[in-house]
Amino acid sequence: MIINSRFFNRSELTGFIVLAAVLFVILPLSLDVFRLNLVAKYLTYAFVALGLVLCWGYGGILSLGQGVFFGLGGYCMAMFLKLEASSVENTKIQSTPGIPDFMDWNQITSLPLFWQPFHSLTFTILAIIFVPGLFALIIGTAMFKRRVGGTYFAIITQAVAAILTILIVGQQGYTGGINGMTDLRTLKGWDIRPDHAKIILYFVEVVLLFTCIGIAQFIRLTKLGRILVAMREQEDRVRFSGYSVANFKIFAFCMAAIFAAIGGAMFALNVGFMSPSFVGIVPSIEMVIYTAVGGRTSIFGAIWGAILVNFAKTSLSESFPQLWLFSLGALFIAVVLAFPNGLSGLWADYVQPRIDRLFARKPKSGWNGNSVADGAPAE
Amino acid sequence: MFGDYSIGDLGSIFVMQGFAGLILFSVYVLMALGLAIIFGQMGVINMAHGEFMILGAYVTWMTSNVFQAYMPSLFGGYFFLAMILAFVASGALGMLVEWVLIRHLYKRPLDTLLATWGLSLMLQQAYRSVFGAREVGVELPQWMLGSLHVTDSIEVPINGVFVMGLTVLITVSVAYVLYLSRWGRQVRAVVQNRIMAGAVGINTEKVDRYTFGLGCGIAGVAGSAFTMIGSTGPTSGQLYIVDTFLVVVFGGAASLLGTIASAFSISQTQSTLEFFMSGSMAKVLTLLAVVGILMLRPQGLFALKVRK
Amino acid sequence: MSDEANKGLLSPLRRKLLMGMAAVPVVTMLPRASFAQAPATSAVNTTGLAVTDTEVTVGILHSATGTMAISETGSIEAEKLAIEQINAAGGVLGRKIKFIQEDGASDWPTFAEKAKKLLVNDKVAAIMGCWTSASRKAVLPVVEQYNGMLYYPTFYEGLEQSKNVIYTGQEATQQILAGLNWIAKEKGAKTFFFIGSDYIWPRTSNKIARKHVENVLKGKVVGEEYYALGSTQFNSVINKIKLTKPDVIFTDVVGGSNVAFYKQLKAAGIDLAKQPLLTISVTEDEIDGIGGENIAGAYACMKYFQSLDNPNNKAFVPAFKKMWGEKTVIGDVTQAAYLGPWLWKLTVEKAGSFDVDKIAAASPGVEFKGAPEGYVRIHENHHLWSKTRVGRAKLDGQFELIYETADLVEPDPFPKGYQ
Lengths: 379, 308, 419
What we know:
heterotrimer, B: 308 residues, mainly alpha, two-stranded antiparallel ribbon, C: 419 residues, alpha/beta, seven-stranded mixed sheet, five-stranded parallel sheet, 15 strands, elongated
């Protein structure tokens, strides 16, 4: 990846180096495979958070249906893996060998048509990107062209999440129902379950994450990113300046959907599992929360938010299950009331100035974590 | 599917089915009224609405227990007291929440969504810690059970009639309060122009607090009524939230009449579809239709003001 | 890098193993009696499980939070009671059972993750846990991959069998067939209406029930309806029931939906004293939420009722109430969860080892004579031989035993002719 002073400003460069060091070196060296696999799971949400930074933090579009795209990506991947795990030898006890077990339980005797192409990995990878992308395009076009935004958009995306969940649960012969798709084993004959595979998958995921960070950062730096910010602040003025606000919103929403879908696909690979419990309203809102906690306008902040909230969830629910919901609830309220810019805002307001002083440079006057810093060339 | 049945059977089934739709309609109106006030009038997305309802349900449960233990002779009438208590409890909690949380967020409607979601998690855990994870069964007085026998095949559930009556009563009172009382005029003045309303001497903060309290109080009464037909557990409230929001948005957020019309169309569609297909598919189709119509007509059925 | 991580993980265990081996000569010099009471750790644990000379660790994995906490609380309580009783009676192979409780939070991947944690990090000797089919399906690949032992308490849909799982609840045929036979004979029932929650267990159960009704009982299924989990509006399906006038309503509705269903059924004027209703999803736990007055008269097909009249149950119920409060009720699954630790203890003692492979091999034939439901025995397919019972719900929320099979019913997770 090209790192130069134009691509990242100085504080972002710090953020980039710290994140890269932690994900590539520190965590793999200090954690056992079990914990590392958990981190890999948290990172799948970081993809979603990254997308939300683009569409919510920059574009001002709050989607409460990111679980839909996470789920679509995850299900595409899981369908491929499930087909591979359902080879004729593996499923000979079924009345129809060679189809996924849940289909057999639901008296389906041949592979449904829409499952057929998922025998191909190429198709699957394309589907992971294009199915959620197209879906977001349809929703986005329908909504933004009619200038639906804000709370209405949030509620409608929420309804979409609800619909998809009920549909997946209801059509269990084709989707595995509420159990989801379990027991995913191999990818092109390569067993994804043992420890060494988990480590490889972890690194693949981190590399993918950094690629997505690069794309997001690129979008931010181009004119597109500035229009998004302008739109968030004063939509009408952008419209009067002759830009098609709807198209930019649709673009941001589709990018967010694709990032979420990549996260979902990595989830299916890392966890070996996909179920409707990642599609519905509750997970979708949780994904927004990760972003809010980390800082909705900061790419690195949001990623840290996803990692830290999930880490807190695992460790708190291990030791104090009763306390967990209380502290999660309190965290949301605190973030919204007191730290609207989340962790990255705290960092920019309190930590960054000190670091700056430490390096005896001219102290900056509080970085707001948004457009102010964007345009400024780094020193 | 109708081949095997006589005309009389079919007739009574259609009556019954229409009645089932009416009950569903009442349920939707009860759920949505409080939210229509809070979301429609104040622009606050209250994701904890379901939890305020469940608070009302728990209050009802506690009242029934107290009556059973100390005043068994008056048990038949406890439900009315329970509903008043539910209104007071949820309303008071609502006002507290407005004071602590919501009033800081009026300029950031999307953030109210996150904060109230946090609140709903805390309330759920609080219910779990206080009342236990299991569902509680609310015992109803004898006169509320069973059904009115109209003909051999048409029977009207008494609690359904009760819920419908309650819905009418509450809707009429809310309409009166909002559109005819002095306080209602103040509320609408604040909604239309907060600064001007303040300038002419309306205490906008107080109006906000009481409006939010009223919305939550109605949620409490709704929760109390739902003990008759549904379950009461720490997480029961979450089940209602999406439906409720859709009803409000579909009706056009700021319009009371819109809420009622949308509740009516959604409930009738769903209950008719349920008769012809499985429950989950009926639900999917109804929601899809609502979302589809909203995409074509984003302002909802009855829009007072189209967009900001 | 992975090697390094593994070293860090294994070294304390390796140390324990070495200590265990060091203890062998000492132990062999001890008098025979004490040897028999507490055999050396190295002998009973050759696979690095969390077993010391005085303790053995097992995992409890249920939802303490989330929607399923309602149902799973009873199982947690029963398992803790069983562990306490086993410890009071001297433990397993002279070792006290210590448990690590993890919260699955009603979220299936969390179950898989916690199961992995219990097996990989905590090295538990067995896991008592899971409740829903979905959580079991999520955990199953994990226990198979890391070779753990799961004791699963819930009655479930069958179509599954694993070396690493002991199913202490009934599979579908065990639960359903005898009940259907009974109601067909007793009530002369010919037409059935099925209503269930929309997921694998009700669908598979209804599939089996339908085949049995059509092929064996020569009856007719006049309706089959599914509602999303958590649905609270059943008026339409109740109208359909009224239209089709079935001889029997057969239900497998779960969770909060149950409460709504029975309340609305009653409100619609369907009198369960006159209209036979057979449920396979309502236990004493559920009645607590439904309210006895709403469901009195319904028949439930289970293997255990709190009201069972036998000496084992007479001891079990007061012990349970003493530990968890007078007001608690004990349902079918709670009792099955109670069997888990006991069956594990008996199997360990039969195998003379905590090793999972030996336990899996020794399980078939293990008998538990102290089961509150009566006598149970583990089948070769790792399910339990148990009786099927039909009870009628009473106003006070208890069941009155109406019928029980004369013999233990053989578990048949892959029933021929029912697929």
